[in-house]
Amino acid sequence: MQETELANFIVNNLRSSLSSIGFSQEFLDALLSDLRNISVENFGKKWREELGNKYIIGFFQKIVPKYFSDYIVPVTPTSRKIIDVGCGTGILAKLYAEDKRFERVVGIDINPYPEWKIFWNEKIKFEVVDEATFPNFLLEEKPDSVVLTWTLHHMEYDEQERYFEYIHDYLPSGAGIIILEDSYSKNLIPENGKEKYEEFMKWGPEQRREIMSVYDWVANRVLAQRSKVPMPCTYRSLEDWDILLEKKRFKMITQKFIGFPDNRDINTPQSLIVARRN
Asked: Which of 198, 173, 171 is closest to 184 using CA atoms?
């Protein structure tokens, strides 16, 4: 019974969030009628036009930039050079490059994105950088801020720890690290979507992880058609991120439980952390 209730919860929330960013009823019916057995490739081909208009353009090029402008850019310390780790399409790097507080912006990811050619200019560049080359990359670039948005849960747990160690070891004292993650707080009241939060927290920890994992799979594999993005779904609570950052010798500056904002592709809880290297 609980499995059926959980499946209904996931489907109903996906229907609500995806309709809020403009997907048609016909699209949602096709997506959610048998989500377990959906052919990702065939679905992408059949619904290419709507995915392009509502998701690639409508969500990533219009809604996400406003979200980053509201929550991420204002809390980022003024920087000579900022590294956007796991930059994806590069839309956040583009916003930083348009801000006079940031002299140079470097976006990196383990896979290239076609949007890089559009956003590249005299203030911004993009590179493919994996874990093996990341320490030398930091040593050469010498950034004074690092930002990771929706990136860490695409790493294994031990990989997350190693990246924090690299960042600490190769950044100067006082350097900033800004983190936006799919993460809920066990103690703080959400700034947005209190009712959604209460419904989400009725489930146990394992069910919450399953909910977030399915949402992330839908967003990356089905909607964005990204077959190469790693998906270990390694989530931590806001409090667990605090503990890990302290362990890795970062000093907490700001923590914010954004919660469940409106006009999101998936109803996943959002947390923001700003810390500094000791």
From this structure: 198
The angle subtended at Cα 88 by Cα 147 and Cα 40, nearest 5°, is 140
Domains and CATH numbers, the chain: 1-278 (3.40.50.150)
The number of beta carbons lying within 10 Å of the beta carbon of residue 106 is 21
DSSP annotation string for 218-233: IIIIIIS--SSS----
Eight-state DSSP code of residue 77: P
Q: Is 269 within 8 Å of 200 (Cβ atoms)?
A: yes
Rounded average pLDDT over 82-105: 97
- The pTM for the full model equals 0.96
The answer to whether 260 and 198 are in contact (CB under 8 A) is no
Residue with tokens 């109803």: 267
Task: Summarize pLDDT for 193-250 with one digit per residue, the tens.
Answer: 999 999 999 999 999 999 999 999 999 999 999 999 999 999 999 999 999 999 999 9
Cα separation, 219 vs 264, in Å, equals 11
Give the pairing type, strands 176-182 and 250-259. unpaired
**Segments in the chain forming alpha helices (H):** 2-20, 25-32, 40-46, 48-50, 64-71, 91-97, 116-119, 134-141, 157-170, 194-201, 205-217, 238-247
